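Tokens for chain A. Residues wanted.
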């Protein structure tokens, strides 16, 4: 299986709530640079956090790739979601090529757990960073981090 994990692009520092923060113009540019790494990949699904900035990020990637399936919104991809729950949800989906769009600290902790099997080495994600993992199963310590791109 191949799993791509994308952190949302740069967002406004403030809004009525954290969930309502929107992407900045720079954040939209970052996302489009990261989306270029996904061109030609056989994605089966784009799954995103319900937070506005993640929804905007997923929509930009969806459009840039001309992806035919709608973005799936799930409650288990918010910043404070439990890594083990996310891993269980990924496994339950049964897909081979999947893009997750979410937030720190979840994305760093998830990639670290999948690669190393523990939470002591989270992956260093900046805004719109894109990780590519590969492995037979989406289980802790059983996936290999193939790349981690930071769009700047």
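Reply:
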């Amino acid at each position: 299986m191949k799993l791509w994990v994308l952190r949302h692009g740069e967002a406004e520092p403030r809004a009525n709530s954290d969930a309502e923060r929107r992407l900045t113009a720079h954040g939209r540019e970052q996302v489009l640079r990261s989306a270029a790494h996904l061109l030609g990949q056989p994605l089966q699904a784009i799954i995103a956090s319900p937070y506005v900035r993640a929804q905007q990020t997923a929509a930009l990637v969806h459009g840039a790739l001309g992806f035919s399936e709608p973005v799936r919104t799930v409650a288990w991809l918010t910043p404070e979601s439990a890594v083990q729950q996310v891993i269980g949800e990924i496994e339950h989906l049964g897909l081979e090529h999947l893009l997750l769009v979410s937030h720190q600290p979840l994305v760093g902790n998830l990639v670290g757990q999948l690669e190393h099997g523990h939470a002591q080495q989270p992956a260093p994600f900046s805004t719109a960073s894109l990780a590519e993992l590969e492995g037979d199963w989406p289980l802790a310590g059983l996936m290999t981090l193939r790349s981690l791109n930071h769009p700047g």
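The longest strand covers residues 2-7. Residues 2-149 form a domain with the Rossmann fold fold (CATH 3.40.50.1240).
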